[in-house]
Amino acid sequence: MTQTPNSAPGAGPRPALLRRGRSLIAVTAALALAPLAMPLSTAWADSDKRSSGYTKADLQRDLDALTAEDGVVGAQATLVKGEDRIGVRSGTAELGTERPMPKQGFFRMGSNTKTFVSTVILQLVGEGRMRLDDTVEDWLPGVVKGNGHDGGRITVRHLLQHTSGLPDYAGSMPGITTADGFQKDRYTAFEPRELVALGLKTPPLFAPGHGWSYSNTGYILAGMVIEKVTGNHWSHEVRSRIAKPLGLKHTYSPGSDPALPGPHARAYMQFGEKAPLVEATRLNMSWGDSAGDLITTPHDLARFWQGLLGGELLKPRLLAEMRKTVPTPGGSEASGVRAGLGIFKTSLSCGGSGWGHGGTTLGHLNGNAFTDDGRRGVITLRSTNLAHMDRDVRNDRLLDKALCKTR
């Protein structure tokens, strides 16, 4: 590990970071031509524009409930219908001030990064440069071994679908699980192999392909595979294969740079139910790497989901491969959550399903849900990661209601 300059005080999160695979926040619902979105300067709809049953006023009311009742400092939501973007914001951009949330603020997307990484791998599969049934050992010989782990039994598909049995390294990092650890490691730079090694300290959770458990470790390995196949860092491939074709000018990997571009809201983290909020805007996200370090804006993220589900990034057979799902264990099964390759499918209360992949990281949460064709959807963003956010019922209901009533 290396340290980058510590230029700001701060605080941090709890183990459920980069996760959100078990609720609708995570499911929300990952080579392009001209953007579907309206120009950034005109895309924000300030009028109370109706969208077949779910209005801007409805969205505002539901978002206000998140800030007022859940104690979130700032939040914003974007309702997507074709080229239309209806945006609302609630709370403030900074605790103790009246500064409003920015309309198109930058934020850390967390695990939604995984959908980008999975998309790149599926593109490489389509080009015949690798296969989903290739093993980790095929591309990264000797990296996954010992303590019962065998990279020769784990396929790329297992990595992307969280069926590898690899333990998640995130829970073993004091820098993202305790306040003291966060203060110590806020600007620490981690290498991908360090993160994988942390995960491998725990024996396999199950034999590859014989269970399901969310694993950031698997996606660090997926990023390493991309680099081995292409000779380029995974973020370079995301930029050239996804961001540039779709016109995502505000989506990028910061690497070890702790800064968040402006405009942005300040981010806050709570380490326990009764703990105070700690400011966590600046931090080194190398601990997330290909499992969750991307930065974006609401319109960029909406454009990505519309491009992906609309077939601009993957050929039909590859998009169909991404959408082949398996059940997820625990509480998410009751909600009808199923895992694809870097994407989740969630049953809606009105029938049908939503596709997406939310993200939770230090001080930032996003939830999203889009229809099968990507034409309709909703994105929520919050600048406060509270200790009870693993029980994110209110946000789940907002996503469900918005997608069900937007026709």
Structure summary:
With 407 residues, the protein is α+β, with helices and mostly antiparallel strands. It is 31% helix and 16% strand.
Question: Could you explain the architecture of this structure?
Answer:
The structure is a single chain. The protein is of the alpha+beta class and 407 residues long. It is built from 14 helices and 18 strands. It has a 5-stranded antiparallel sheet, with helices on both faces. Strand 12 and strand 13 (344-347) form a beta hairpin. The protein is globular and about 55 Å long. The model is unreliable at 1-16 and 19-51 (pLDDT under 50).
Radius of gyration: 19 Å
The count of helical stretches stands at 14
The order of strands across the largest sheet is 3-2-17-16-15
Q: Would you report the number of β strands?
A: 18
Keywords:
alpha+beta; globular; 14 helices; four-stranded antiparallel β-sheet; about 400 residues; five-stranded antiparallel β-sheet; disordered N terminus
Write the layout of secondary structure elements.
Blueprint: E1 2-3, H1 24-27, H2 56-70, E2 74-81, E3 84-91, E4 107-108, H3 113-126, H4 136-139, E5 145-146, E6 149-150, H5 156-161, H6 179-185, E7 188-189, H7 192-200, H8 216-230, H9 234-246, E8 268-269, E9 278-279, H10 289-292, E10 295-296, H11 298-309, H12 316-322, E11 326-327, H13 331-334, E12 337-339, E13 344-347, E14 353-356, E15 359-361, E16 364-370, E17 376-382, E18 384-385, H14 393-405
Parallel strand pairs: 8-18
Antiparallel strand pairs: 1-7, 2-3, 2-17, 4-10, 5-6, 8-9, 11-12, 12-13, 13-14, 15-16, 16-17
